[in-house]
Amino acid sequence: MRQNKERAPRNRTITLTEKEKTKYKQKLLRLDKPVTLEEVINRTINQDLFEIIDFLPKQSVDLLFIDPPYNLNKKFNSHSFKKQDSQTYTNWLDSCIARLEKLLKPTASIYVCCDWQSSTAVFEAIKDRFHIRNRITWEREKGCGASKNWKNSSEDIWFCTVSDNYTFNVDAVKLKLKVIAPYTVNGSPKDWDITEQEKYRIIQPKNQKN
């Protein structure tokens, strides 16, 4: 029924056919014993992370991007997550990150997603473990409104590193934006460029820093 539902023009959800599901399922990896990095690199492990975390090689991860359950009543297929008081959720999150920490290289970077309510819990869980570099706040178009509250249309991503020795590819995240107010100095563009078609500026996205 969902597959036949008409989608919004900008909906980018990927739906697999049964044939595609069968094809890609054969490529999934399941672990029942310790493995080397070579055995799992460029593979997709389809298991509960904390059931197999001790099988993964120590200090092998360059980049950790995690999107833990927000502190909400939420159902994930056959699994459910129940909202907890703030301290209990913080303790749970801290225990999860503690187990992941041993997988990280000394040069690793970490990104942790959260909503505004759980953002403080993420901070408490990472502040004594990693070097916090930034909190990226991004706006999404969807979000529930309320008659007596502001529309909830943003989420946070905490960016941190294991040490001061890490990689940040600033050129890969720069954006090309149209110049609305083309200031000049002695007739030359100030902090922007021009072609025959457009006036533009290359900038770094807000809330990210080198």
Summarize the structure.
With 210 residues, this protein is α+β, with helices and mostly antiparallel strands.
Walk me through what this model shows.
The protein contains 6 helices and 11 strands. With 210 residues, the protein is α+β, with helices and mostly antiparallel strands. Among the domains are: 58-141 and 151-167, Vaccinia Virus protein VP39 (Rossmann fold, 3-Layer(aba) Sandwich), CATH 3.40.50; 169-210, no CATH class. A hairpin with a 2-residue loop joins strand 2 and strand 3. Helix 4 (86-101) crosses helix 5.
Strand order of the largest sheet: 1-4-6-5
The class by helix and strand makeup works out as alpha+beta
Oligomeric composition of the shown chains? single chain
Shape: globular
Assigned CATH architecture of the domain at 58-141 and 151-167: 3-Layer(aba) Sandwich
Which strand-content bin applies to the residues?
25-35%
Measured as a percent range, the helix fraction is 10-25%
Number of helices: 6
